[in-house]
């Protein structure tokens, strides 16, 4: 929990204090509830309890994370409302999502059908990452982008469908490169 709060403090310039975040961040509340629901999900006889907990959490926070999803350390959801993370999604460490992000599936088959997101990834508001795609480490995905293909490490993906590009100069920060495209604000 401490790591999650530290991540929120580092990524939320509006955070008034650690106490404010602990008491008032729906993203943190959803993450903490998910961590418990996921532990319950791993025990077959407790899966109904895990689903009930995730449903209650969705009602309270507006964030829907299936208890089967695997979430890494220091995960942060800013604002939270409308985030959906599917059952077979895998999210790495130090990932940040903004509101309205979907890590969704494209099939009804009982297979790996949701994205795998690497470490240190930022996904902008309203972005949709659909299907069993791989999002590499240090990727930036622009607001409202629709990603249906793999995105290699260090890339920036923007648009509908998302176009993948890399920072123009070696050593450029991919996060800063994200702002070089007006498509992220549409």
From TrEMBL:
Pathway: Amino-acid biosynthesis; L-cysteine biosynthesis; L-cysteine from L-serine: step 1/2. The keyword Acyltransferase applies. It is an enzyme of class 2 (transferase). Keywords: Acyltransferase, Amino-acid biosynthesis, Cysteine biosynthesis, Repeat, Transferase. The keyword Transferase applies. It catalyses: L-serine + acetyl-CoA = O-acetyl-L-serine + CoA. SUPFAM superfamilies: Trimeric LpxA-like enzymes (SSF51161). One of its GO terms (biological process) is cysteine biosynthetic process from serine. PROSITE patterns: HEXAPEP_TRANSFERASES (PS00101). It comes from Knoellia aerolata DSM 18566. Its EC number is 2.3.1.30. One of its GO terms (cellular component) is cytoplasm. Coiled coil: none annotated. This is Serine acetyltransferase. The lineage of its organism: Bacteria, Bacillati, Actinomycetota, Actinomycetes, Micrococcales.
């Amino acid at each position: 929990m401490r790591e999650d709060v530290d991540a929120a403090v580092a990524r939320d310039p509006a955070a008034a204090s650690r106490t404010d975040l602990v008491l008032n961040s729906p993203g943190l509340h959803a993450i903490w509830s998910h961590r418990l629901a996921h532990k319950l999900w791993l025990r077959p006889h407790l899966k109904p309890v895990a689903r009930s907990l995730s449903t209650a959490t969705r009602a309270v926070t507006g964030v829907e994370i299936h208890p089967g999803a695997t979430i890494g350390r220091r995960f942060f959801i800013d604002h939270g409302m409308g985030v959906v993370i599917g059952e077979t999604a895998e999210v790495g460490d130090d990932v940040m999502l903004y509101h309205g992000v979907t890590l969704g599936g494209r099939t009804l088959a009982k297979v790996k059908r949701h994205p795998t997101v690497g470490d240190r990834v930022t996904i902008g508001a309203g972005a949709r990452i659909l299907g069993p795609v791989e999002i590499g480490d240090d990727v930036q995905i622009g607001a409202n982008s629709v990603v249906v293909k793999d995105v290699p490490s260090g890339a920036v993906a923007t648009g509908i469908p998302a176009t993948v590009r890399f920072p123009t100069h070696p050593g450029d920060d991919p996060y800063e490169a994200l702002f070089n495209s007006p498509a992220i604000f549409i």
